[in-house]
Amino acid sequence: MSSLGTMMDYPLTLDHLLVRAERMFSAVPVVSRLPDRSLHRTTYGQVARRARALAEALARAGLRPGDRVATLMWNHAAHLETYLGVPLAGGVVHTLNLRLSPEELAFIVSHADDRFLLVDEVLAPLWEKVRPRASIEKVVMVSAAQAGEYEALLASATGQWTPPRLAESDPCGMCYTSGTTGQSKGVVYTHRSTMIHTLAAGLPDLLGIRHADAVMPVVPMFHANAWGLPYASVMNGAKAVFPGPALDPESLLDLMAGERVTMSAGVPTVWIPVLEALDREPRRWALVPGLRLIVGGSAAPESLLRGFDRHGITVVHAWGMTEMSPLGSLWARRLPRSTRTRATGSERARAARLPWWRSGR
Questions:
Q1: Other CB atoms within 10 Å distance of the CB of residue 306
Q2: C-beta of residue 220 within 8 angstroms of C-beta of residue 243
Q3: What are the residues facing 32 on neighbouring strands?
Q4: Alpha-carbon gap, residue 310 to 257, rounded angstroms
Q5: Integer angstrom CA distances of residue 84 from 48, 231, 258
Q6: For residue 279, how many other CB atoms are within 10 A of its CB?
Q7: Contact 92, 67 (CB under 8 A)
Q8: pTM of the model
Q9: In the chain, what percentage of residues exceed pLDDT 70?
Q10: Looking at the domain that runs over 202-361, which CATH code has it been given?
């Protein structure tokens, strides 16, 4: 005799993140550094409301299920709105790497068959170099002053709109990776793959993102979805802090200290000058005790890990691929205080051979 499970069938789709943020974390802050270096403050409740307006406006503008909506933007609240709003409308968020050449961007836009583009006003000069080589049906400029085309698009929403029914297997995101031979290759994420990645990112032995955290992704939102930090922050209700285009060490440290950041993430070339700034002026920034830095994208030198360790900052080394959404594995280990500067090569090699539950990793 066959039996059926009695648990509800609950699809793993990104619209649930938006609903969760509205209901449980509506007052949690979202802070963005703007191009003029001022700070813009909003909340998850306001971000969710604007994401719904974006979804409706795009649908009324002709967005069909599976259509690609490209973004050419820095890390800020409006980019988070696209992360949530585009999938809600059944579209696919396609983040464009603003550090690529106009020729590479034109190829990617054409290959992905992007129909819509949201572009930061400060990046308009870059888009003007791409535009003659690419065909986009609708381009919307996003102003840091919360004015202009993007705000007009949101204002066109009536609130009288029902989102389409989403399936786990529907595409929701697209990233192109240059870590390949020949032209960049596209990776398409589904709602299910993104939700599973988001759920895993909050686990204690992975990123361990909690409601009590303040998370600052320095890794760009166009780099493999900022390693999943935006979605994980929304799911767990962590305060979101976005550095915008100001990525010099002093600006990052000022923001980390001022917003009481507990976790940040970036590539080694971001953290090396940050460590140098801390070494020069160790008393200048009052960082949160227990600050965690996620480092990935390339192998971090041991000196970087030990350098931050001197300042009481834990470095978590991550590895992954765009095709993995992107997290694959993470490594975080702090030596006992008395041995942090005295562990020998043989001791480290032995620890690496041991199972994780015996090695202290």
A1: 15
A2: no
A3: 40, 242
A4: 18
A5: 8, 9, 27
A6: 11
A7: yes
A8: 0.90
A9: 91
A10: 3.40.50.12780
Tokens, residue 263: 């976790």
**In 10 A of CB 42, how many CB atoms?**
20
Question: pLDDT at position 357, please?
Answer: 34
The arrangement of secondary structure in 41-160+169-190, i.e. its CATH architecture, is: 3-Layer(aba) Sandwich (3.40)
SS3 at position 49 = helix
Nearest alpha carbon to residue 184 among 111, 115, 132: 111
Domain boundaries, given as residue ranges, for the chain: 41-160+169-190, 202-361
pLDDT value of residue 3 = 66
Closest CA to 234 of 215, 220, 219: 215
Nearest Cα neighbor of 127 from 332, 302, 114 is 114
Q: Cα–Cα distance between 126 and 37 in angstroms, integer?
A: 20
Indicate the DSSP class of residue 360.
Answer: T
d(CA 212, CA 354): 33
Domains 41-160+169-190 and 202-361 share a fold: yes
Q: What sections of the chain are H helices per DSSP? A: 15-24, 44-60, 77-88, 102-112, 124-130, 149-155, 191-201, 229-236, 249-258, 268-280, 302-310, 345-353, 356-359
Q: At what angle do helices 229-236 and 77-88 cross, to 10 degrees?
A: 80
List own/partner pairs for 134-141 with CB under 8 A and 24 or more apart: 134/105, 134/106, 134/109, 134/110, 135/110, 136/70, 136/109, 137/62, 138/61, 140/116
148, 68 Cβ separation under 8 angstroms:
no
From the CA atom positions of the chain, what is the Rg in Å? 21
Is the pLDDT reported for residue 2 higher than 80? no
pLDDT value, residue 7: 82
Give the mean pLDDT of 319-342: 71
> Within its chain, how far is the Cα of 250 from the centroid?
21
Among 18, 90, 97, residue whose Cα is nearest residue 55: 90
Residue 248: how many other CB atoms lie within 10 Å: 14
